Structures are given as structure tokens and as C-alpha cells.
Amino acid sequence: MANERLETLIEKVQANPKYQFISRELVSRLTEDALKKGLSGKSAVKAIRNKLHQVGGAYFRQRIDYEKPQKLVSGLPRDLKSDQVKDFCTRMMQSHASTAERLPILDHFFQTCLESIAPVTSIVDLACGMNPFAIPWMPLANRFSYHACDIYLDMVGFIREFFKHNEIEGDITACDLVIRLPQVDVQVAFLLKSIPCLEQVDKAIGDRLLDAIQAQHILVSFPVRSLGGQKKGMLDFYKNHFYDLVTGKGWKIQEFTFPTELAFLVTK
Ligand SMILES: C[S@@+](CC[C@H](N)C(=O)[O-])C[C@H]1O[C@@H](n2cnc3c(N)ncnc32)[C@H](O)[C@@H]1O
Fold first, then answer.
1. Does 41 share its domain with 80?
2. Which domain holds residue 16?
């Protein structure tokens, strides 16, 4: 009976196309939470959708129908440094607020943050959004692997096609980082601007993820303004928050401040 209630509610939440392609693991966990809080019917559906919007939907300027860009991928040259590929990648990054905000600093963001460990040979990009389209701007070795995950099945499927076309080695999967971390042994893990987002559903996730990530280095970053564009002392707030998370761990930390992002390269 409890299972039936859960299934019915999940179906109702995902009946709206906006929530249709979100990882079932995440929808199911939020639905269980709503039921535990005693919510039911329309108020439960509304609460779950609000949370899904807050952690994922809010970053998209509009819903993306991946069919059109998918067709464009097959016509692209197989050269990640070509202007045509870079134009395409820029357009894809523009569609997601988080990568759009990184575009003005893209020419030096990854070069600066990863300079001390370049050329990079393997990456896992956690809660990646459209960031895998920044690959042409990263200081990578000639041969590299790139793994990534996010909650959107359609977005990860599309990125997978881009990887296939360019013969990029790696796995792109749908995930719920609150429940599970992809198990890959890599040189660098990216956790870009995602800790505040994940903390909206699990307050202890930042500490847990930083401890659990199996990588020699973690590139962690934080936004310096809200999605609405306000600064509200966010730089100092997140700087303090980050140092609270890593104090006492004995890790080496390099700090980088950009006009739109605060980043740290953690070496375990
Ligand atoms: C602020 S955006 C950052 C995106 C990307 N890392 C970047 O820097 O451009 C937060 C990302 O976290 C993803 N996300 C939210 N909840 C998640 C979860 N439980 N597991 C995995 N990804 C999640 C969202 O879909 C969104 O792409």
C-alpha cells in the first residue's frame, strides 16, 4: 500500500514534462520525504516539484528539446579546438545559467585553476550541468577521460552523444549525488557551484562528498551572486563555509577568485 502511494505520487510529479526526465532516484527520494512529512495529494506534488525546480529546473532559461542540437552534433567537425565546435559548445553553455555565468571567465578559469596539475588526464564532473561543453577550454592531455553525472536523463543522453561523436572516453550518467557517488578513479573531480544547491536537500552533503570523493584533486567552486544576480555578501559567506568544511583535514588548498566564481583546488 505504502509502495502504491509512493508510485502514484511519483507518476503525478513526473506527469509534467518539466520533471519527466529527472533521475527517478531523486524524485523517489523527495517523494518519500514528502510522505514522511505527512504531505499528500496536490500539496505533496507541489512541494516535490518546487524542490526539483530549486535544485535543477531554475538553471534552465527554457526547456530544451534536444532533437535539434542532437542533429547539429552529427554535422560538427571532430576537432574540439575548431571554431565551429567552440561556437556550438558556447551556445549549449548559454542554455544553463551556471555555465552561462562562467562564459566571461572561461578563457582563463580552467587554465588558472588547473595550471599546477596540467595536463589533466582524467576528470569526473559531479552535478555537471552543461559544463562538459567547456572541454575545449580545459588544459587536458592529448589522451584524457571525462566522466560526468547530473539529474537530467535527457541532458546526460545528449552530452553522451557529443562525447561519442568526438570519441571522448568516459561515462555520462544520471545520478542523485545525495545517495551515490559515481565510482571512478580519476585525477580531478569537479564539484562546481553545486555544494549550495545540494545543501538545499541535505545540509551535511558538502562535508560527506569532499571526504568520499576518490580523486587526487577536487576543484570546488561557489557562486558569488544569486541566480537573480544579487551579491549579498556571498563571496565571504561561501569562503567561510568552504574553510569550515575543510578545516582540520590536512588537505592542501589553492584559492582562486574570479568576478563570477570563487574556486578552490583541493589536493588530498
Ligand atoms: C549550480 S548548478 C552547477 C552546474 C555545473 N556544475 C556548473 O558549474 O556549471 C547545480 C547542478 O546540480 C545538479 N543537481 C541538483 N541536484 C543534484 C543531485 N541530487 N545529484 C546530482 N546533480 C544534482 C543540477 O541539475 C545542476 O546542473
1. no
2. 2-55
Pocket of ligand 1, beta carbon within 6 A: 26, 55-56, 59, 98-99, 127-129, 131, 150-152, 175-178, 192-194, 197-198
Instruction: State the closest ligand 1 atom to the C-alpha of 190, by its place in the atom list counted from 1.
Output: 6
Going residue by residue through the chain, which has 268 residues, state the pLDDT in tens, using 9 for 90 and above: 578 889 999 999 999 999 999 999 999 999 999 999 999 899 999 999 999 999 999 999 888 889 888 889 999 999 999 999 999 999 999 999 999 999 999 999 999 999 999 999 999 999 999 999 999 999 999 999 999 999 999 999 999 999 999 999 999 999 999 999 999 999 999 999 999 999 999 999 999 999 999 999 999 999 998 777 676 789 999 999 999 999 999 999 999 999 999 999 999 9
Residue carrying the nine cell digits 570563487: 262
**56 CA to middle of ligand 1, Å?**
6
Closest residue CA from atom 12 of ligand 1: 127
Tell me whether residue 62 is in a domain.
Answer: no
Quote the CA–CA distance of 206 and 185 in Å, as a whole number: 20
Which residue is associated with the grid cell 555565468? Answer: 101
Q: Are residues 205 and 111 in the same domain?
A: yes
Q: Please indicate, yes or no, whether residues 151 and 210 belong to a single structural domain of this protein.
A: yes
> What span, in angstroms and rounded, lies between the C-alpha atoms of 223 and 99?
11
